[in-house]
Amino acid sequence: MINTQECSDRLLKDKLLRANNKFLTMFQLSPVGMAIVDATTGDFLEVNDSVLNSAGYTKDEFIQLSYWDITPKEYEKQELQQIEDLKQTGRFGPNQKEYIRKDGTRYPITISGVALTDIDGKEIVLGIIEDISERKAHERKLEHDALYDPLTNLPNRRLLFNNLHQSLAHCKREQKKLALLLLDIDNFKPVNDSLGHKSGDELLISVSQRLQGLIQRETDTVARLGGDEFVIMLPLITNDHDATLFAKKVLDCFLEPVLVGQEYIDISVSIGISIFPEHGDDELTLIENADKAMYQVKNEHRNNYKIFMPLR
């Protein structure tokens, strides 16, 4: 005869098996990444398709790995803290980090974990792993769109002012000069009106590419201020001659006609130059004074450059 205790144990075991099977089904079907890790060794015991799809492994390959195999070394301190959190509270996260794919590339994730005991009494950790690659890409795009001109992909006014602020602080520390060249395309409006806005946009793109081609130092910046106005920032120069020499290079780069659509167009630019610290020690003053110098060129003969001369 089967005694009451044996019957009770069997019922309990059956109930545990059903619960375990139900959990594993939910585990495998979950759209959220999930993995089970041996709490002692860090070896993977189980993983669902969501994690496999992100990591690029087959299941057979993945369960041969340990948690440390897919974790970059620079996250070791975070991992040790997660282990400590598990010991103290039985859970950790959510934390942001990166995993290493099978092909060696990395992808960003958020991970949370909880300490559990499986049906056989083994200490395990259930990890909830979300691949946030798309979210991070969207964040990067929003950040890029906020700082770069959508037409030319040059830094916009906001990024220019940020870079200029930092460069001015650097030049003050190093007791160096900084030159700001503000340039405007001569007769852009008639060209834009006669050829159409699409061709006008192509012209702006071509101009931006030629200007960018003149940049040789990482510290220098070409930005689109707006319309047909561009700014070139040259920090850490030693004298005004460095600025005028670069202005001549800008003028020379437009000696060759610019291809717009199916035709070549002759263009020129007018350049105003302001120098830190002589013509201002803040972003706005330097921009305004370079603008004044540029309009002096416009009013005289265009296709030239001029350094700002303060009124005496």
Automatic annotation (TrEMBL):
SMART domains to which the protein is assigned, alphabetical: GGDEF, PAC, PAS
Residue intervals of the PAC domain: 93-144
Domain GGDEF: 176-310
A single GO molecular function term of this UniProt record: catalytic activity
Gene3D superfamilies: 3.30.70.270, PAS domain (3.30.450.20)
Chain segments annotated as transmembrane: none
Pfam families: GGDEF, PAS_9
Co-factor requirement: Mg(2+)
Top-level taxon: Bacteria
Xref: PANTHER family: BIOFILM ARCHITECTURE MAINTENANCE PROTEIN MBAA, DIGUANYLATE CYCLASE DGCP
Protein name: Diguanylate cyclase
Species name: Vibrio genomosp. F6 str. FF-238
Lineage of producing organism: Bacteria, Pseudomonadati, Pseudomonadota, Gammaproteobacteria, Vibrionales
